[in-house]
Amino acid sequence: xxxxxxxxxxxxAQDMPVDATTGGDSRYQDETIDVGGLKRSYLVxxxxxxxxxxxxxxxxxxxxxxxxxxxNDKICQIVDFCDAHNVLLVCxxxxxxxxxxxxxxxxxxxxxxxGFVDKLIDDLSRRWNVDKSHIYAMGMSNGGFFSQYLAxxxxxxxxxxxxxxxxxxxxxxxxxxxxRPVPIMFILGTADPLVPxxxxxxxxxxxxxGKTVPATTAINFWVKANxxxxxxxxxxLPQVAPLDPTSVTREVFEPxxxxxxxxxxxxxxxxxxxxxxxxxxxxxxxxxxGRTSSQMNANDVIWKFFEQHHLGEQSPTRYPLPGxxxxxxxxxx
Length: 333
Prior knowledge:
Elements: E1 29-35, E2 38-45, E3 56-62, H1 72-76, H2 78-85, E4 88-92, H3 113-127, E5 130-140, H4 142-153, E6 160-164, H5 170-175, E7 184-189, E8 200-204, E9 207-212, H6 215-225, E10 233-236, E11 247-253, E12 265-271, H7 286-289, H8 298-306
Parallel strand pairs: 3-4, 3-5, 5-6, 6-7, 7-12
Antiparallel strand pairs: 1-2, 2-4, 8-9, 10-11, 11-12
């Protein structure tokens, strides 16, 4: 199996009116660290049956804007998923329910969230038996934008990234250049009413949350950075939910353009899909966030993608439940 995942969420801090679940959740341990004089928080959920000598993969899952760390599970049932795959789930908490993902948004104070995650990973490594070669970032909307930002800023610690209903901000596109390849997956809806598939301004009522580039431009940004072949292998996924009008196309950009190396880019394009988590909950009405596709399960495809990638030279270790056989993955970075 793979190891440390990073992210999921509701939307983008202040990017959309999501259900801001608050209050304690007994399934998590509430942890804090000091980052530049600020007390920062994160939640940890250990899979049942874990024995401490076993190094675990870690899923750092970033909530969306206006959402909460506890609210992740309401969108995509991530706790049960991590339990089933023997993954240490970590849900960081954004200040004012927002992540600094590189966008320059008027009247939004940006904090050093990259520094927070950098220190958080170190804290996890000291206090839990985690496999540092398997750390993944995934998130939805603001959490997805931020996951990509982590790939740009912490590529030495992030093994792969999944960005759900988040293309790429114009600010990041204009100012950032990846220093090394990082495997990345996009899951994007063509009918997203909040983060436009064709690019443009993110607007929530009277609020403006920055400009984004078109989905194809965002994907090509990483295709070029990762040294991928420019032409993808395209597959139309079967219709598994006959009453669901959405459909799914998978595009795989294989690494190796120009003579080897690099990291793959995968995009799932949900035709008719909204600002939602495929296979998850329709957390707000269709008229507000668009349609949730039932034609695929985002948790499953993201994990299958993550478990192919790791940091370092040694073969990655899969992480079965105690008492099961250990297999080896084949893809490395």
